[in-house]
Specification:
By secondary structure, the protein is α/β, with parallel strands linked by helices. Helices cover about 40% and strands about 15% of the residues. It has two domains: about 260 residues, no CATH class; about 180 residues, no CATH class.
């Protein structure tokens, strides 16, 4: 089952993670057996973190904290402490400072130096299955089915209807075929990926990788981390179901029927409205009604709260109901916009697409890896269009690619040959992706953002270690007993993401002001020094003039004597 293994993995039958303090302290330079666990923010990541945590605790390791990693920012927003043992599971992107790395997404990239690292890519359907294989531990087949189905989106293979994933009614679920699998799939859609605090507290408190125990822990900790505008705790299930109802209406739109767009002119005619600017000029503004399918790509705009699974379920529902034509079955990609972040997901497995039918980039290369596609696109924008935004990141894996924090910057070049002077880079990125993946001829100068709306501030970048929590920030409960929640004696609650972003923005503003003050102080010092120099020169000149006057007087006296 193991695809790659090295260092401490000696054989497939019963590999182990070194347990000796001597190994970690003397050979690796760690402070004892203290461990940080990093994982992805999905169900496989949660299961994987619980499994590796349970194993490490049984071997005398001490968990000091957890971190959530996603494909928007990757490792760029994690400050990995090299004096502790760093363990990462279920995340496609490898990092050289990770001491134990177990993942199942593809292969290591060419050039990654893993010879001295405990890095493993397992050929398994899920990271959880790979971890259990690596550790030589028994697994429950039902748990494996749950994770394999959810993580690889194999709902059709397991007999679970996509639209059923959007309905979480336990009383109805138990009456349907494959009830446990359906429960897991529907519960997975209730998890709010941005709620890293709840995810971490669930991982820390779970005693087993059980879907029902995890669900019950979410019901305990989610209300503690999520309040309404009045500060009241929000019930996990009811608030999640409300969000799901919003997803369905916002993503689906209100039109009775939807078409597959076959040209850019058809898109403009159907989805733009004329508005007048302050000078009376007519400007066409894009106005979508939920998702739109353009050739072989579905675009889902910002504010729908959809993800790739939810969008696919809604599109499949519309195909089955006749709201969409049969040709909509041919879509291969979903492009989602979250504010100034773009994410591309494959509808099926990229590896199983007909290679001759794959779309090609402008350079003629087949698009067969969405992570690489996004990374290459960002480099192209930097080199060809001088994009260069230090906060913009690209990442993902074969089936998902993300370009995050693009910002509201506009392309400014009075001598541009491209014809989209003044267009936002976000629109250029979007147009480029559609032109590549839709197989519909698409110009890059289409303005998606309403030019008449007030400028929005750029999305605040995620602060360093924002999704990292240490033990003194994590509450505990005994899920098998009274379920009372207990705070550590030295409890320090983690700030919300909004609070952390505000503090980071305030700090940057203070640093900028200090830098400006430093410049002003430097200018004042330079002026003072210059004035001092001028004053000194003036005194020297006066003295010189006085000496010259005395010399002239003395010379005149001498002439008179003669």
């Amino acid at each position: 089952m193991i695809k790659k293994f090295n260092q401490f993995i000696k054989e497939e039958a019963s590999p182990r993670i070194p347990n000796s303090p001597d190994y970690w302290v003397n050979k690796k330079g760690k402070e004892g057996k203290n461990v940080m666990i990093y994982t992805h923010d999905d169900l496989d990541g949660i299961f994987s973190a619980i499994a590796i945590k349970k194993y490490l605790l049984s071997k005398g390791f001490k968990i000091i904290g957890y971190g959530i990693v996603n494909y928007q920012e990757g490792w760029n927003v994690i400050d990995i402490k090299t004096d502790v043992i760093n363990v990462a599971v279920d995340f496609a992107e490898y990092h050289p400072d990770i001491d134990v790395y177990i993942d199942h997404h593809g292969d290591f990239l060419e050039g990654e130096d893993i010879k001295k690292q405990g890095a493993i890519k397992t050929k398994t359907g899920s990271a959880y299955e790979g971890i259990m294989d690596v550790l030589g531990l028994p697994v429950d087949s039902t748990v494996l089915d749950v994770i394999d189905m959810v993580d690889s989106a194999k709902y059709d293979e397991y007999g679970v209807k996509w639209m059923d994933l959007m309905e979480f009614e336990p009383a109805d679920i138990v009456k349907k075929p494959n009830a446990k699998l359906l429960f897991a799939g529907a519960f997975n859609q209730l998890i709010k990926r941005g709620d890293f605090q709840t995810i971490i507290e669930v991982i820390h408190n779970a005693t087993e990788p059980s879907i029902y125990q995890i669900f019950n822990l979410f019901k305990i900790f989610s209300p503690l981390n999520n309040q309404d505008k009045f500060g009241r705790p929000m019930d996990f299930v009811s608030s999640a179901k409300w969000r799901m109802s919003q997803v369905k209406s916002r993503t689906g739109g209100s039109a009775e029927f939807k078409d597959v767009i076959k040209s850019q002119s058809e898109f403009i005619n159907k989805y733009t409205v004329p508005l007048k600017d302050e000078n009376g000029n007519i400007i066409n503004v894009v106005k979508l009604d939920g998702y739109v399918i353009i050739g072989e790509i579905a675009f889902v705009g910002s504010g729908t709260w959809a993800n790739a699974i939810r969008a696919r379920a809604i599109i499949q529902r519309d195909i089955q109901s006749g709201r969409l034509p049969e040709e909509a079955k041919n879509i291969k990609w979903i492009l989602l916009q979250y504010g100034d972040t773009l994410q591309i997901a494959s509808v099926g497995k990229v590896e199983e697409y007909d290679k001759d039918d794959l779309p090609k980039t402008k350079e003629g290369k087949p698009v067969d890896n969405l992570k690489k596609y996004c990374e290459d696109l960002l480099k192209k924008m930097d080199s060809n269009l001088n994009f260069k935004n230090q906060y913009t990141l690209a990442g993902g894996h074969v089936g998902i690619g993300t370009i995050s924090n693009i910002g509201s910057k506009k392309y400014i070049n009075n001598f541009s040959k491209f014809g989209f002077e003044g267009l936002k880079y976000l629109d250029i990125f979007k147009n480029y992706i559609i032109s590549n993946l839709s197989k519909v001829p698409w110009k890059l100068d289409l303005c998606w953002e309403n030019p008449l709306s007030p400028e929005k501030p750029d999305t605040e970048a995620v602060p360093l270690d924002a999704r990292v929590m240490y033990i003194n920030q994590i509450r505990t409960t005994d899920i098998k007993k009274n379920k009372n929640v207990v705070q550590p004696d030295d409890y320090e609650p983690k700030d919300s993401m909004a609070e952390m972003k505000k503090k980071a923005a305030d700090l940057r503003a203070l640093e900028a002001e200090l830098e400006e003050q430093k410049k002003r102080d430097g200018i004042e010092r330079a002026k003072a020094k210059h004035n001092e120099y001028r004053f000194k020169k003036s005194e020297e000149q006066e003295l010189k003039d006085d000496i010259e006057k005395e010399e002239i007087k003395e010379s005149y006296k001498n002439i008179r004597r003669k």
